[in-house]
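Quarterly update from the structural biology core.
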Amino acid sequence: MLPIAIVLGIVSYMILYLVPALAENVEPGFSVFAKNIQPVLMAIMLFLQFNKISPHDLRFRKWHFVALVIQVVLFLSLIHTPSPRDRQKSRMPSSA
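Predicted structure, tokenized:
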């Protein structure tokens, strides 16, 4: 299966490289895929590849949700808390 994927990738790249009009129409869609969707697919693939538990046996427990809530709260508090450097800049008089 891997050799087929490699050959398909090479052929797709060569077609887009040799036909500029096709590349202009198709490339924005590929960019969106590579930027937004591909990292999620890679993370899922790595998680399932290196996980020693069968995906069928995974069951969420109460502590999973507690840990998730703690992570979200900490993330939001860090996002909305200005850094000391930002506080210093806001107190400086403007030079205009």
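The mean pLDDT is 81.
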